[in-house]
Every structure is written in structure tokens, then in C-alpha cells.
# Entry
Amino acid sequence: MAHGKKTKVALIRGNSLNEWEGSLWNMMGSEFDVTGFCARKNIYPIENLEYKVERLHTSSDNFVINNTYKYACGVFQKMYGLEKRLKNFDIAHSVEISYFYTLQAVRAKKKNPKLKVVATVWDNSFGRYEYNYESGFGSIQKHWITKMREYMYEVSKGADLFLPVSDMSASMLYDLGVSQEKVKVLTPGVGREVESSHDISRSISSAVLEKEYYLMVNRLVKEKGVYDVLYAWKMYTREKPSNNKVLLIIGRGLEEKNMKRLVRE
# Structure
């Protein structure tokens, strides 16, 4: 960074910019100038983000346009004008290899050669177009998956760095043809300071601390596999009964009420 010039970072999140992951970017430091880019109809709260945010018209803003683009063209979350907005940035940080706005960031390098594209990749992002996750059709549409594969191949070659959250995510990137030199596993961080384990332990009874905890943290929606975990836990505890083992589920979502019902029953 020459002569104190700030590194301009574009945080591209489609309709999913949020305060929990987004708050990590509040701590980037004075040498970075962060701008968040999200859809006009963003899903999550962003009021507490300390950097500027630009809302772009995105295909996901409209139900009809969203599904037309997705199923007819294989385009999932196109952010209109994004390439133009990235012309003065140094780094574009996106998510997933299959989102169209990640491809847009890669294509923006044609007009902005200094731009570096980085993409965080999560465990549950692979195969959603291969196993017919969202379409509801009897079988996957050939033109759809063909387009998706073309886009992912272009991203795999054009992005500068992939940050999978686990070794499993990394291996899936390799299966898609991503070079190992472009992959660095980076596990999720925590966006705020927490009490020391000593302080926490003093407030918890010894009876609780003696238990063996198994933790699941995610949105409580079907596509996250929450019912798989719940029923697997039931099977596990049936085969190996124990009053010492506790499944702790942390999260919110559409399935929360139904999951609580199942637990009670």
C-alpha cells in the first residue's frame, strides 16, 4: 500500500449481507476502505455495519425475474451494474463459486486489471444445482446445469483466491477443477470478544459442566440438514443411552417451532 493509500475492498453478498458475518469487516483497520454491496431486497439486518453499503438492483428482488433468470438462464443472483461499480476497487470479496455475482466480479477484471477476486466457500453450497434442490422439476433441466457448470468453470479459472471453510469444502473445489494454489482453508471467525472460559465456568454449575455436549449452529431450515441431525441424534441415543450427552442446537429459522415440537414429543 503505497503512500498511505487505503486498499478498497468490495464485500459482495447479493441478498445475504448480514450483521453477524458482516461485523467481522468492521475490524479491518484504517488501512482498508470497505464497501458492502447487497440487493435492494436484502434478507438480513445490516443497520449495525460500520462501513458504507450500496444496494444494487438484483434479480432476486423480483420473484418472477429471479426464477426466470435462474431456471431459463442458470443465473442465480445477478447484481445489475456491479462490474461498473468495481472499476476502482482493489479486492472483490464474494461468496460461493456458483453465484452469478461472483462471476460478475471475475468479469470485472477485464476493465479493472488490478482487481483481485476472493471467494469464501461453505460446505453446503455444492451440488445444489446438481441434485435438483430448488427447481421442483421432476428432473434437472439440462440447459440449466450446463450453464451453471460453464459459469463455475469460468469462476474457477478467473478468481484469484478461494477461502473454503473446511477441508471438505476445499476437496469439493478441487473436484470442480480449482487449482490447489488458489485454495486456502479459513475456518469461520467470531465477530466479537467473549468472556474467558474461566469466567464462563464460574457461572455454570458443576453438574452442567460434567455433561458431554454436541453442538450444531446454523439457520433452522430444511436445507441445512437440521432434521437429519435431529433424527440421527435420536437413533444414536437409542443405541447408546446416556444422561450425560446433550445435543445443543443454536439458531433461528422456519423450522424452529416444529423442531421444538419434535423434541418435546
Notes: The mean pLDDT is 86.
